[in-house]
Amino acid sequence: MMLQIEIDHLNKHYGGFHALKDVNISIKQGSFVALVGPSGCGKSTLLRTLAGLEKTSSGDVRIAGRSVIGKPPRERDVAMVFQSYALYPHMDVEHNMNYSMRLKRRPKEEISERTRTAAETLGLGNLLDRLPKALSGGQRQRVAMGRAIVRNPKVFLFDEPLSNLDAALRVHMRSEIRKLHERLNATSVYVTHDQVEAMTMADHVVVMRAGVVEQQGSPLDLYDRPANRFVAGFIGSPAMNFLPATATENGALVLDNDSTQIGLNRHIAAGCKFWIGMRPEHLSLKPCVNDMAIDATVTGIESTGSMTFVVLEVASQPVVLAHSGRPETRRGDQVRLHISLDNLHLFDRETELAA
Ligand code: ATP
Are residues 16 and 111 in the same domain? Predict the structure, then answer.
């Protein structure tokens, strides 16, 4: 499979601030890649670097095999869809969509043909003469996408395009964007701080923190095999629970602040300190396969209707349990918490790496 984008040892400095640190990402033609991470981690900077809106400090970016370093945005064959949509308020939908083609003085027939096709693809056919102020948020978002589509680019770049929409529309537009990506056989790079969005839309997720790529892989790969504590805590909702523990002489783990021992089927060196990682959905108030039980106190219950999140105190630490349905338990109850041993994660407390 051909590589559409290669980001090769890329660094970006803003004065003395190192915003992107030796970033390496290979993106196949036709794939949908999400850049995800907390605010300030550098995901927008990376996207803007691909678009040609930021200069790089060192390293290379290749699109369809050619280095684009030093090339202006219009020579890169990429189209960017912004969070703010960046629509021209005085232009109707049609003119917003075909602005770039008019700027390039493309033939009239080509302009109207491409605009019509894009409008049909996006279900905007009957809104072409509306001004942006007379559109809903979702419709504006579609116009912004239409503007990218008419340019027929090699690569689509999305900078948090759904963050101004309400929750229901956001979920709907996620699948619309994904379908569009497939229909156009496009290559897409999508920035979001929302790990659920990244997990549900992308084939390949890149998790960033403080300018560094912490891990990249398929969504389920990151979920099942997080490389370090940061990725483990960032991917998954509600977040993974972490309990501090220390390895004993006989190869078990004993929880700090508690005498509970957890026997593991693997060798660990005595005295090593770990975080035990437990996903909320791998905890239960009832016995399960290959589990161990531990005393806990219920300190809170939150229900979404279909799911219930039970907040517990275990060895003086808060732990969240996810239960599909409605468990018969109340705040203040003393319970036995069952932990599925097959699904535990271990992280070295010094390096934070998966052990
Ligand atoms: P957010 O989700 O909040 O948009 P982000 O991950 O997209 O965050 P960036 O916008 O890429 O983060 O910013 C990365 C870091 O670089 C931040 O610490 C930011 O303050 C810094 N930065 C961004 N642009 C500049 C600039 N023009 N000059 C100096 N520092 C900058």
Answer: yes
Q: Residue 305: what residue type?
A: G
CA distance 316 to 294: 12
Distance 64 CA to ligand 1 centre (A): 27
Residue 353 falls within a domain, yes or no? no
What are φ and ψ of residue 278, in 5° steps? -135, 120
Share above pLDDT 90 across residues of the chain, in percent, rounded to a whole number: 68
Nearest CA to ligand 1 atom 12: 40
339, pLDDT greater than 70: yes
Given a cut of 90, is residue 122 above it in pLDDT?
A: no
Regarding whether 23 and 144 lie in a shared domain, the answer is: yes
Residue identifier of the C-alpha nearest atom 30 of ligand 1: 14
State in Å: Cα 251 to ligand 1 middle: 45
CB-based burial label for 222 (10 Å; 0-12, 13-18, 19+): buried
Residue type, position 207, single letter = V
As a whole number, mean pLDDT of residues 251-258 equals 88
Enter the pTM of the model: 0.92
Q: What pLDDT, on a 0 to 100 scale, did the predictor assign at position 173? A: 86
241-247 and 66-67: which strand pairing? unpaired
Domain that holds residue 120: 3-234
The amino acid at residue 343 is N
